[in-house]
Design goal:
- By secondary structure, the protein is of the alpha+beta class.
- It contains four helices and twelve strands; from the N terminus they run H-H-E-E-E-H-E-H-E-E-E-E-E-E-E-E.
- The strands form two sheets. It has a ten-stranded mixed β-sheet with strand order 2-6-5-9-10-1-3-4-8-7. Strands 11-12 form a two-stranded antiparallel ribbon.
- A hairpin with a 4-residue loop joins strand 5 and strand 6.
- The longest helix has about 30 residues.
Length: about 280
């Protein structure tokens, strides 16, 4: 009997210690999940900054998908002829079920006949799959990050201002995903030819019409400014009008969509999670 009581006391002691360990761990984990609201930016560690800019309410790891019809068109590289194909403004409201999204702020999407347009510089990407078979909707091997760069916590983490052309706009960046089929520009490349600059601008202008923000249940707004960040490799900035798209915490979901050549990129942002010291940070 004494042996039994000692064993019972030992088991109870182990259980209490285990419970204390869990209790000690939970508060620590809770403080690190939104450290940006609990610590001044100057006190953020390099690990915390890396987490904030790569996987947080403002930064979404994504995998690109092949565009609908990619590989079928020799000239257009799979831009569908007004069928939507999962692009902004096409299909069921830019990716949301329940209806066609209406486009504001730029060139209308889902225009009949766009699939037949030959894109200079091969932005559409030619034959793509080689054999001409469609891979539309399939996940590609390309992984990257979609980040809300105009949000105050991201600006505090990056410690660098946005380009002047994006002042007063929502700014979304896409990194790690190439402009598949577009003109390749290496980091630090110095090419001042008029033809190259014109081709680059043509590619970026097309990206405006293929890039959108859409809060669930609201109109689509297309990008008004697009720029490539040369020094960072495959990285693009997309600017959207704040006036045309007022956002608040009542928005349940915001969908960003773009198409980089034959690759479609989508990311969802949840305003209720994008709070910085009590305010929506966009």
């Amino acid at each position: 009997m004494p042996v039994y009581r000692e064993s019972l006391r030992s088991s109870r002691r182990m259980f209490l210690l285990a419970g204390a360990g869990v209790a000690a761990w939970l508060p620590l984990d809770a403080t690190t999940t939104d450290f940006w609201n609990k610590k001044a930016p100057a006190d953020w560690t390099s690990e915390e900054i890396d987490r904030l800019i790569t996987k947080s309410p403002w930064a979404k790891p994504i995998k690109a998908q092949y565009a609908s019809g990619a590989g079928n068109s020799r000239d257009g590289g799979g831009y569908p002829g007004g069928s939507g194909g999962g692009y902004p403004g096409g299909g069921a409201g830019g990716g949301y079920p329940g209806g066609m999204g209406r486009s504001r702020g730029g060139i209308g999407l889902g225009i009949p006949g766009i699939g037949g347009i030959g894109l200079p510089g091969g932005m559409g990407g030619g034959r793509g799959n080689g054999g001409g078979s469609s891979r539309g909707g399939a996940v590609s091997p390309y992984e990257g990050t979609v980040r809300w760069d105009s949000a105050r916590p991201i600006l505090d983490a990056m410690k660098s201002p946005l380009p002047e052309a994006f002042e007063g706009r929502y700014v979304i960046s896409v990194s790690g995903i190439p402009l598949m089929g577009g003109r390749s520009v290496s980091a630090g490349e110095d090419d001042d030819s008029a033809a190259s600059r014109r081709q680059e601008q043509d590619d970026l202008d097309r990206l405006k019409g293929l890039s959108s923000l859409q809060p669930k249940g609201k109109d689509i707004v297309q990008a008004g400014v697009v720029a490539r960040q040369i020094g960072t490799g495959s990285s693009f900035l997309f600017g959207f009008s704040r006036e045309m798209l007022p956002l608040d915490t009542r928005d349940t979901d915001i969908l960003f969509t773009t198409q980089l050549g034959r690759l479609v990129v989508k990311a969802h942002f949840l305003p209720k999670e994008m709070l910085y010291h009590g305010d929506l940070a966009t």
